[in-house]
Amino acid sequence: MMSVISDVSFTRFGKRPEGLLDLVAESALPIARRYGRDIDFIVFSNSYSGEFSDMSGVNNLISTRLSMDDVPSMRVDNTSGSGGSAVMVADSLIRSGNASNVLVIGAEKMTGYPTKKSTRIIASLLHPEERSAGISLPSLAAFMTRSYLKEFDAPRESVARVAVKNHHNGSLNPYAHFQSEVTLEEVMASRVIADPLRIFEFCPVSDGAVSMLMTSDENRDSFGNDHVEILGVGYSSGTSSLSYRDSLTTIGSVRRSSEMAFRRSKLTPNYMDVVELHDMAAVLEIIESEDAGFFKKGHGWEAVMNGETEIGGPRPINTSGGLNSKGHPIGASGVAQAGEIYLQITGKAEKRQIKDAHLGFSLSMAGFGNNATAIVYGGAS
Amino acid sequence: MNINRCRNCGTKFLVARSVCPKCGKEDFEHVPARSGIVLESVELIATPDPYPDRYYLVLLDVDDVKVFCRSQEKLREGSQADIQDDELGPTCRKA
After folding, report:
1. Same-domain check for residues B56 and B68
2. With an 8 Å Cβ cutoff, is A147 touching chain B?
3. Are residues B48 and B80 in the same domain?
4. Which of B45, B65, B66 has its CB closest to that of A192?
5. Closest chain B CA to residue A194
6. Are residues B39 and B78 in the same domain?
7. Residue B58: which domain range?
């Protein structure tokens, strides 16, 4: 048996006045109205409902909000990688026969606090011995950028070009937080956040939600005509102690999860028509594009400079705008990656549509590579 | 700041573990980290609460263990730095 995604519904990502449950309802209702009676499990991807919204047990608050009080539910909390994990859990529930039709919801409400406080909340995933030095996640990306540029003699501009590309893609995505393009000059002149990285090279702090209906290939005909199959899922962890890592220019969990997903799908990176990576910072897109197997180590930056990863290029990456421009409501991001691949493969990606997209790949990463979930998708029919 | 060292196999690491990642034994000693060599330093302008608004984050090599600390000044790669704890955590300065 195989699981399929049969429907997707996004909210606009951004600074939203609504609370967490309102955002969840906005994304879930279009699916619940159509298929509510058939849904027999809700998987909620979310990491910080306690910290930002003073809520726990939030999966049950959601099921009642949707008047699906008796439908079993769980919250999947795996920091930035929660969304990929939620899709993996739904896929497992369906393939094991423990559920038939799963509503996967990813959502986060994050914009209520000053940046200094939200930076502190996100940094709580670090070990106390490392966090006490005053580390933030953006500062780790700065270390990574310096190491990458030095080790592979890459131009500084190549990292900024990821932000230019992803802002262009985001300008074509009606759900994206940022809807406008930026030039290379604007990126390079923007405020430094963690030297050498500048504000346009980081994802914004965003609110947002996305919902998907997942079912089995056997049940799919009850849920419309547009389905995308989950062909393979891979997952892996790496040490959460950054000081214990040998290299800052490769992420073991990304490498291993991607290899597993491709092996299970019996496909290789070359076949992927559309790819979503976890670009919390622009440099991560380059490093993940290598670790996932799309480019040789040390050559990802050249692909960016040559325009290969643009819409219209041979290897489009982050057609949604990525976390960089679409925004990064933590629990929503990995589900939104699957949602973007769904829209692309079913031909519903409008202005950013990739021609003849049949196969796709997403990489959802937790922490700074603490773990990762890679998913290979295929075939609309 | 202390480095953890396995009493059985000598493996050293920064973050507390209950089990040695190399030999699996559970007996450690804590070795004070007083100085190290600067591997990299990054100026951080958007900082987490309750830290100051601007500082350098420095990655040090302390006897083959990587250690992070905070510095008010830019430290040159390859230079020696002294480590001292303040009320927030480890800081370092030019030796």
Report:
1. yes
2. yes
3. yes
4. B45
5. B44
6. yes
7. 33-94
B65 lies in the same domain as B39: yes
Give the number of other CB atoms < 10 A from CB of residue A37. Answer: 10
Q: How many domains is chain B partitioned into structurally?
A: 2
Is residue B49 located within the same domain as residue B90?
yes
**B90 and A242 in contact by Cβ < 8 A?**
no
Tell me the H-state helices in A266-349.
Answer: 282-291, 300-305, 322-326, 330-345
Å between A196 CA and nearest CA of chain B: 8
- The H or E element containing residue B55 is strand B55-62
Q: How many residues does the structure list for chain B?
A: 95
Q: What are the pLDDT tens digits along chain A (381 aa)?
A: 999 999 999 999 999 999 999 999 999 999 999 999 999 999 999 999 999 999 999 999 999 999 999 999 999 999 999 999 999 999 999 999 999 999 999 999 999 999 999 999 999 999 999 999 999 999 999 999 999 999 999 999 999 999 999 999 999 999 999 999 999 999 999 999 999 999 999 999 999 999 999 999 999 999 999 999 999 999 999 999 999 999 999 999 999 999 999 999 999 999 999 999 999 999 999 999 999 999 999 999 999 999 999 999 999 999 999 999 999 999 999 999 999 999 999 999 999 999 999 999 999 999 999 999 999 999 854
Distance CA A297, CA A163 (A): 20
Fold of A3-113+205-222: Peroxisomal Thiolase; Chain A, domain 1 (3.40.47)
* B90 shares a domain with B52: yes
Alpha carbon distance A241, B74 (integer Å): 24
Reported ipTM: the value is 0.95
Question: Does any CB of chain B come closer than 8 Å to the CB of residue A129?
Answer: yes
